[in-house]
Automatic annotation (TrEMBL):
This is Hexokinase C-terminal domain-containing protein. GO terms for molecular function: ATP binding; phosphotransferase activity, alcohol group as acceptor. The lineage of its organism: Bacteria, Candidatus Dojkabacteria. Residues 341-436 form the Hexokinase C-terminal domain. It comes from the Bacteria. One of its GO terms (biological process) is carbohydrate metabolic process. It comes from Candidatus Dojkabacteria bacterium.
Length: 444
């Protein structure tokens, strides 16, 4: 086996390198143009015109004054429902002026359990809330808030902000098997409240607020936050951003064709059937999302296997791992678990670990650079952006990925010179709770 530098040099012309400044500028321009199209569109949300989806949520931004007016001790049942982990909790405002979660219920939804009817989905959510009510006292609140990660449209109602699911096929392999037309079903919130009326401990719940998880993040506030823009970002399993009332769905914007086509590692990831082979193949989310990072490493290793530079089996090991922090762990260096998966000598294991560390590091660098292009594109569309401001971000890729925050900041410095961006570690559960409580607080 050759040394790691010789082997890695094969991958450099195939896409294993940081993006060039010119490439990042081109991506930034495309994202900015997509946002302009999506937020100025007069017709129904679509991506066929080259714009972001740009779904309007019928909400206004929560100001610092709105947050301060939330009474101490007020509470709301706040939930995060999307792919794998469903969280249901009671959130209250403390005497220190912050929102805090109380009893938290976590339910892991197995992939085999993600196909159901619309009414079954509503009942599952209602059951989660009922179970929380059986474990903790929720009698002091009449409000329910849901940070919802599935595609939907919003409507303002007398009982809050409701949602209509707009797609039969949802994220993370979920499917609503009887959803041919969402107009044939009652709105999600109305159905959930109706189910809760049948249980003694939840029948008093009267208001519900359902927002996309990224819009929920945009409402996250603390008492010390200054110059926070009305935007929200999620960089985790999924990738998205919000701008004011718009759920942009920016992770679904296609990378410029020439840049995507030059990434042969990306093509190999598709060959391994780790990417969709439809129109979503080249969306920017596929270079950033937590599930796709390990697939990128798997694609690079697979190319080396095909060129007979490394032993067979490493690519599929990375593709099949359930350890979503493995890319970050290897990028940081100091671990070497190759010998646990294939039979190699000590020297070969060392070389292979150096290769995986380098591939993982560059994969995270590229993801970080693209995160910066998204942030820069969104905040440039805010009409009154100061030179120094805060933005709320949720997601393990950004907050736990090795050096992701630092590289993102460096790239932002290139894209937005003379601007200081202060990321805030945000929570969609606390964000949607903030919005719901502010809507029910005394007005000035």
């Amino acid at each position: 086996m050759n040394d790691s530098s010789t082997i890695l040099s094969i991958l450099t012309p195939l896409g294993l390198r940081p993006f060039l400044d010119a490439e990042l500028s081109a991506i930034h321009r495309k994202l900015s143009n997509a946002i302009s199209i999506g937020t100025q569109r007069a017709s129904e949300p679509t991506t066929l015109d080259g714009g972001v989806l740009g779904v309007r949520t019928s909400t206004h931004q929560i100001s610092p004054k709105d947050f301060d007016k939330i009474p101490v001790g007020s509470s709301v049942i706040s939930c995060a429902y999307a792919g794998t982990n469903w969280i249901t909790t009671l959130v209250s405002k403390t005497k220190e002026g912050e929102l805090k979660t109380d009893t938290e219920k976590l339910t892991e939804i197995q992939e085999s359990e993600r196909s159901c009817t619309y009414n079954e989905l509503c009942k599952r959510m209602a059951d989660e809330i009922i179970q929380l009510a059986e474990e903790t006292d929720i009698s002091n609140t009449t409000i329910l808030a849901i940070s919802f990660g599935f595609p939907h449209s919003n409507v303002s109602t007398s009982y809050g902000i409701d949602a209509q699911i707009t797609s039969r096929g949802l994220t993370k392999h979920w499917e609503i098997i009887d959803l041919e037309s969402y107009e044939s079903f009652e709105p999600l919130g109305k159905t959930i409240l109706s189910l809760l009326k049948n249980h003694d401990k939840t029948k008093h719940l009267s208001y519900i607020y359902i927002l996309n998880d990224t819009n929920a993040v945009s409402h996250f506030r603390t008492s010390s936050t200054e110059n926070q823009l009305p935007v929200g970002f999620v960089f985790g399993t999924g990738v998205n951003a919000s701008l004011g009332e718009y759920n942009l769905e920016i992770g679904k914007v296609l990378l410029p064709e020439d840049i995507a086509n030059s990434d042969k590692i990306h093509s190999e990831t598709e060959n391994l059937r780790l990417l969709p082979s439809n129109d979503d193949r080249d969306v920017i989310e596929n270079w950033i999302g937590g599930d796709f990072l390990k697939d990128k490493v798997a694609g690079a290793l697979s190319l080396l296997e095909k060129k007979q530079q490394i032993p067979q089996g490493l690519g599929m090991w990375f593709a099949e791992t359930k350890n979503h922090s493995l890319v970050s762990d290897y990028a940081q260096g100091g671990i070497c678990t190759v010998a646990n998966h294939i039979q190699v000598s000590e020297r070969e294991a060392s070389v292979l670990c150096e290769i995986i560390t380098n591939i993982s590091s560059i994969t995270l660098i590229r993801a970080s650079q693209l995160i910066a292009t998204i942030i820069a594109s969104v905040i440039q569309h805010h009409t009154k952006t100061p030179s120094q401001f805060s933005i709320p971000i949720e997601g393990s890729v950004f907050w736990k990925g090795y050096k992701v925050k630092e590289i993102t900041q460096d790239t932002l410095g290139m894209l937005l010179p003379n601007t200081t961006v202060n990321p805030i570690e945000a929570s969609g559960i606390l964000g949607i709770a903030t919005y719901a409580l502010a809507k029910h607080s005394p007005k000035s």
